[in-house]
Fold these 2 entries.
Entry 1:
Amino acid sequence: STQSTWACVSQTERMSVTSKLDKWLWLGVHNEVGRSWILSHRVNLVYKALCAFYGLFIFFFVWGASEEWSELMFVYLTDWGVILTCSYFLSSFAIAAVPYGKIPPYLWKPCHWLFELVLCTELVIVVVYWGAIFNGNLTSLQFASTIHAHGITFLLLFIDFWLNCIEFVTTHVVPIVLFGILYIFVNLGYTLGVRYLYAILKWDSAASVGVAIGILFFLIGVFFFFKGLTRVRAKLQGENSSTLPRTELSGLAGKAIMGSADL
C-alpha cells in the first residue's frame, strides 16, 4: 500500500513537472504550422508538397554526391541540417494537409520548434561554410551538392518564414542551445576518437574551443534576429489583413483580429 502511494505521488510529480515545462515552452503559443497568412490553402499545400519533394531530393542527392556521406552522415553538421530540413518539409506538408482543428499538440509542437531550429541552424551552416570552410577542392557533382546543402535549403526555409505564421518563442532558444551543445560534444568525440571534421575545429588549442563557443553564440544571435523579423512579418500581416480571407488570417495579426483562442 505504501509503495503504491509513493508510486502515485511520483507519477503526480512527474506530470506536474511535465505540465510546468510545457506551459513554460508553449504558453500563449498557437498552432500555426502548415498555415500561411498570404497564400490560399490550396496554393500553400502545393508549395509545401514541392518543398517536401525537394527535401527528399536533397537528402538523396547529397548522399549520392559524397563517397563517405553514408558513413559520416551523423557527424557533419551540414548533414544534420539536411536531415532536419527534410523532416520539417515533410512534416509541415503532412500537417498542412490535415484540417486545422484536428491536429493534436503533440504533432504541431515538434514541427513548430523544428522550423525554428532548422532556419537558425541552416543560416549558421551557410555563413560558417562559405566563410571559413569552403576551399574549392570539389568535383562538379560535389559542388552542385554543396550549393543545394549550403544555400538553396536555407533559401527555401527563408521563403517559408515569410509565408508561414510560425512565431519564434523566446523560451525555445533553450532547446536550440542544447541542440548546439549536443553537436559540439558529437564533434569533439569524433575528432578526438577518429579525426577532425573541420579544419577550424580540431580541438587541439584554445582557439578551437573559442570557435565552438563563438558559433554557439552566433546561433543564439541568429535566433533572436529571426525573432525580430517576426515583428516585421506581423506588421505586414496587419497591413494586409483587410484583403485576406478570414480563414487565412493567422500569426500575430490574426490573433489580434480573430481573438486569442487556441483553435
Entry 2:
Amino acid sequence: MVECSAGSRRTAGEPWPSACPGAVHQDTLARLWQEVRWERRHFETLWRLAIDAVPLPGNSHMPLARREAPCGCCGQHGHGGAVAGAHAAAAPTPRQHHFWDCAVAKAVVAQINAHNPGPAPISQAQLWLVQAPPGFQQCVWDVVVMAALAATEHGWVRLRGTTRAAAALGIQTAAAAAPEAAVAGAVEAEPDLDKIPPTQLTPPQPCVNPVELACARAVANFWSRLMQFAQLGVPQKGWDGVDATHPILAVVNGDMLCALPQAMELEA
C-alpha cells in the first residue's frame, strides 16, 4: 500500500490517474469546498474516493468492507468473490472496479460522453482528478464530477442490496427490462434513494435484470443531482464563461438549464 501526500492510499500497481494526486489533488478538494455552493452530501463520494475510504467490497484496509458480498455486476471484489489468491494481483482494485470498470460506472460515464463536445471520450484522470476536458468550463465540470461519482456509488450500493435480497429469497433474474423505462421509473418512484439502506431494499421482480436496473438508477440519480443544482440558479462567481451552448449545464438569459438524459446503451 502506498500513502500519498494528500492522505490517500494506493495499492502498488493500481492505475490511479497520474499515479498519485498528492498535494495537487488536495488543493483541488480545498478549492471545491470553498467555491462550489452545494449541499455537502454531493461532495462526500469524491472526498472518500480520494483517500480510498469508500467502504468497497474487498478493501483490505477496511475490515468491515472486505467482508461484503462481491460486486453484483460481475461477482468480483468481496467476500466470496472471484478475485482471490494468485488472480488478485492482476485484478483491478475495488476502487478501480467500482468507480470506472463496473457496468454502473460505465453507464454514468456514457451519459457524460453523450454530451461531450471534445474529440475523445473523457478519461479516468479527468473524472477522478476533476480535470475539465476540452469543451467544458471548470466550474461546470466540478459539479458534473461530484454528481457522477455520487450517482455511481448510489447505483452499486443499490445493486449490492438488490442482489443480496434476491440471493436471500432464491430469486432467479432473467431478461433485462427496457433501460429507458427503468430510468423513468427510477426518477418518478425514488425521489431520495440515498436515504434507503441496502438492508431495506426489495429484490427485483422476475424478468428484471438487476445490473441494468442499477445502471438506470445511477443514471437517474446523476441527472437528478444536476437538475437540483440547476434549480439553485447561476452562481455569482466563476460562471461568466458558461453560455447557452455549454454541454450539460448551460446559462440561458440568466437562468441555468440542465441537459436531458440520453438513451442508455448497456453491455450484454
